[in-house]
Design goal:
- This protein has 482 residues and is of the alpha+beta class.
- The chain has three domains: 286 residues, no CATH class; 114 residues, no CATH class; 58 residues, Arc Repressor Mutant, subunit A (Orthogonal Bundle), CATH 1.10.10.
- The chain is 39% helix and 20% strand.
- The strands form four sheets. A nine-stranded mixed beta sheet has the order 2-6-7-10-1-11-12-13-14. A three-stranded antiparallel beta sheet has the order 5-4-15, with no helix packed on it.
- A hairpin with a 2-residue loop joins strand 6 and strand 7.
- Helix 3 packs antiparallel against helix 4, helix 11 packs across helix 12 and helix 13 crosses helix 16.
- The longest helix has 20 residues.
- 32% of the residues are buried.
């Protein structure tokens, strides 16, 4: 039997605020365990939460970016469950009246575009973290770090519209791109600031009713998400084909062994015993504030991609790469502003700059080769002062040096020879030393032009202007210059 896969995602994006959602504790990642806590985020008796305005603003931005309806009245709720790292015994979240509803984003897989619906976006606080790493605690016990308690999150809940792990991957990339463009989350999956749970089910092709779903957790990279989904899809199909029954449960992905392990039976919403948070009043958002936030929104990725294609005459592929992150798009645009050759700049940013970034793991903002320095190098190529191969050598030196491009060209002795008299002398020596090749070219073996250019470049120690060399060679080899 042929089966259809049905997948929905719950994405938790940790907001990049300096303080927590209901108190003034720091949210910086990597601090000493339990050093960033207070009576409010630990839920001590007699304390009251105070909502962080920046959290609401970030949620509204994400709602606008995902074409969602912003609810002007929404309330917080208590979500009751008991984990060792949840000291209050409940989490302040939103349930019946979240801040955003009915959104959508567009993805593209294998050249086909698809609109995926977003059910809701709501605000909530994060729980703490249980530490099981024996290399860290050197015992078999579990330790609790409560620094993460109260760190602000937005949870983005999709509709079950995805039909493959590839669509899930594209959706994750899209939402990560959006939160980073908006500067509301750093999108770091390894540190847990951008994480997702997946609900997966299968059904016979053509059936309308959904199958029994399982939930996958603990997927901390795009690659692990794909691997976990492929594993669970195959497991469910094999189970059904063998006459078994899918049990609604929560599974933990074990990346070391490439298996999903049962954690607990899957909860329904009523298991959390939601009720309105008594310590927080309803939140009313007026139209003026929504308009103000809307007007302050940055240019979003899809809009920037379209503009890059039209304004800089780039292919869709190149524009996609250059707008994949706001940092890369800003870097490219600043480079073009100074050198004006958009395609040359695109080739260098996508090739050499991104290669250096990937190899060194250095962020663009920390790279010595700033857009202004790169554009200076590209201007030297455009003016035929240096060749492209020489520019590569200069680029390598720029990574470790603050010297100007002109100074590096001088130090490396890479300035291109464009003096026609000097080049003509070298060319005449090459033609005189290779009479058979000259006769062959004049007899119709025009591909020999490459041989002559190579000989001239060798004679000039790589400094000859190739374009000018070609022009002079053709004049010398063909009396009419053709």
């Amino acid at each position: 039997m042929e089966y259809e896969v049905v997948i929905g995602l719950e994405i938790h994006a940790q907001l990049s605020t300096k303080t927590k959602i209901f108190c003034g504790c720091n949210t910086k990642f990597g601090a000493e365990p339990n050093s960033q806590t207070c009576p409010v985020c630990l839920g001590m008796p007699g304390v009251l939460p105070v909502l962080n305005k920046k959290v609401v603003e970030s949620a509204i931005k994400m709602g606008i970016a995902t074409n969602s309806k912003i609810l002007k009245h929404n309330i917080f709720a208590r979500k009751n469950y008991f984990y060792p790292d949840l000291p209050k015994g409940y989490q302040i979240s939103q349930f019946e009246e979240p801040i955003c509803l009915d959104g959508s984003v567009e993805i593209e897989v294998d050249g086909k575009k698809k609109t995926l619906r977003i059910n809701r976006i709501h605000m909530e606080e994060d729980a703490g973290k249980s530490v099981h790493d024996e290399s860290y605690i050197k015992t078999h016990d579990t330790y609790i770090d409560l620094n993460r308690c109260g760190v602000p999150l937005i949870e983005i809940v999709s509709e079950p519209d995805m039909r493959s792990s590839q669509e899930v991957y594209a959706y994750l990339v899209k939402l990560r791109q959006l939160v980073r463009y908006l500067d509301v989350c750093d999108g770091n999956m390894e540190e847990g600031s951008f994480r997702c749970d997946a609900n997966i089910s299968i059904r016979p092709m053509g059936q309308k009713e959904l199958g029994v779903k399982t939930e996958l957790k603990n997927m901390n990279s795009f690659r692990n998400v794909e691997r976990a989904l492929e594993y669970e899809i195959k497991r469910q199909i094999d189970t059904v084909e063998d006459g078994g029954v899918i049990v609604q449960e929560t599974l933990l992905w074990d990346p070391a062994n490439n298996v999903a392990k049962s954690m607990r039976s899957k909860e329904e919403s009523h298991d959390y015993r939601y009720f309105p948070e008594p310590d927080l009043p309803g939140l009313d958002i007026n139209s003026e504030w929504i308009d103000e936030i809307n007007h302050s929104m940055p240019e979003l990725p899809d809009d920037r991609l379209t503009r890059f294609m039209s304004e800089f005459n780039l292919s869709e592929y190149n524009a996609n790469v250059l707008t994949s992150s706001k940092e890369i798009a800003d870097y490219y645009e600043e480079t073009v502003k100074n050198c004006h050759n958009s395609k040359l700049a695109a080739n260098w940013v996508m090739g050499d700059v991104l290669k250096v970034m990937n190899e060194t793991k250095i962020e663009l903002s920390a790279l010595r080769i700033t857009p202004k320095r790169l554009s200076s190098l590209l201007l030297q190529i455009e003016s035929n002062t240096i060749s492209t191969s020489a520019a590569k050598k200069v680029f390598d030196k720029m990574f470790d040096s603050d010297d100007s491009v002109d100074m590096l060209i001088e130090k490396l002795g890479l300035k291109q020879v464009s003096d026609e008299g000097e080049l003509e002398k070298i060319i005449m020596d090459v033609l005189a030393a290779n009479p058979k090749e000259v006769d062959g070219f004049r007899a119709g073996k025009t591909k020999l032009i490459g041989f002559f250019v190579g000989q001239v470049m060798r004679g000039s120690k790589g400094k000859a202007n190739p374009q000018l060399v070609n022009q002079i060679l053709l004049k010398k080899l063909t009396p009419d210059g053709n």
